[in-house]
Amino acid sequence: MVNNFEEALSNLQLNKYSWLVTGAAGFIGSNLSEFLLKNNQIVYALDNFSTGLRSNIAFLESYQKTLNNDSQFVFYEADIRNYDSCLELTKNINYVLHQAAIGSVPRSIEDPLTTHDSNINGFLNILLASKNNNVENFVYASSSSIYGDSPILPKHETHIGLPLSPYAVTKSVNEIYASVFSKVYDFNSIGLRYFNVFGKRQDPNGQYAAVIPRWISALLSESNLFINGDGSTTRDFCYIDNAVQANILSALTNNKDSLNQIYNVAANHQISLNELFQIIKHNILIHKPDTVIKEPQYRDFRTGDIMHSMADIEKAENLLGYKVNKSVEEGLKELVRIDCQ
Question: Which of 47, 52, 77, 272 could pair with 26 as two cysteines, CB 3.0-4.6 Å apart?
Answer without folding.
Answer: 52
